[in-house]
């Protein structure tokens, strides 16, 4: 097994998000690794903002949807004990932003949740699938079941 010292967990605020977060926290603790968190905004409008824009967490935007996302994100990071330099809220395409940040920050392991869709959903792809095939580091997928 690799010596994982820098772990990045990708969160999405879904109903299953805490399962992925708890697995990341547990593994980082066991390995005495630095834990960082990324949330990619792809579901709220961001006018005049190009993909890849890092959202400043300490400055009020005046946009209620963005402020709600920032508050949720900061609460998760606070609960995990993640320092401010290990928090990334980015506007863009999830798989691109996650893998790009991981390469830039020299992350050893990315942790993402995966629903393991079948049929049409599997053909369309998912964030986890995109991260697995494009990451330069190892990727751990936390299998999420509908009955969890």
Write the layout of secondary structure elements.
Elements: E1 6-10, H1 17-31, E2 34-41, E3 53-54, H2 64-80, E4 87-91, H3 94-104, E5 109-114, H4 120-124, H5 127-134, E6 138-143
Name a few traits of the molecule.
single chain, 148 residues, alpha/beta, Rossmann fold, six-stranded mixed β-sheet, 5 helices, 6 strands, 38% helix
Description:
It is a single chain. This protein is an alpha/beta fold. The protein has a single domain, classed as HUPs (Rossmann fold, 3-Layer(aba) Sandwich), CATH 3.40.50. The protein is built from five helices and six strands; from the N terminus they run βαββαβαβααβ. It has a six-stranded mixed beta sheet with strand order 3-4-2-1-5-6, with helices on both faces. The longest helix is centred in the middle third of the chain and has 17 residues. The chain starts with 5 loop residues before the first strand and ends in a 5-residue tail after the last strand. About 3% of the residues have low confidence.
CATH architecture group name: 3-Layer(aba) Sandwich
Order of helices and strands: EHEEHEHEHHE
Helix content: 25-40%
From the N-terminal CA to the C-terminal CA, the straight-line distance is 28 Å
Strand order of the largest sheet: 3-4-2-1-5-6
Taking pLDDT < 50 over at least 5 consecutive residues as the criterion, the unreliable ranges are 120-124
Backbone CA Rg: 15 Å
Largest sheet: 6 strands, mixed
CATH hierarchy class name: Alpha Beta
Report the strand count: 6
CATH superfamily: HUPs
| The number of domains | 1
Task: Kindly report the average pLDDT value.
Answer: 86
Strand content: 15-25%
SS field, number of helical segments: 5
């Amino acid at each position: 097994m690799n010596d994982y010292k820098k772990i990045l967990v990708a969160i999405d605020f879904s109903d299953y998000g805490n399962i992925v977060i708890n697995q990341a926290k547990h593994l980082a603790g066991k390995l005495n690794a630095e834990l960082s968190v990324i949330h990619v905004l792809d579901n709220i409008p961001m006018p005049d903002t190009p993909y890849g824009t890092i959202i400043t967490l300490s400055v009020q935007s005046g946009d209620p949807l963005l402020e709600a996302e920032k508050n949720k994100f900061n609460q998760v990071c606070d609960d995990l004990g993640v320092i401010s330099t290990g928090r990334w809220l980015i506007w863009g395409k999830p798989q691109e932003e996650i893998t790009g940040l991981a390469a830039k920050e020299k992350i050893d392991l990315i942790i993402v949740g995966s629903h393991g869709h079948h049929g049409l959903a599997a053909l369309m792809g998912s964030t986890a699938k995109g991260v697995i095939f494009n990451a330069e580091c190892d990727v751990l997928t936390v299998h999420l079941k509908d009955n969890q």
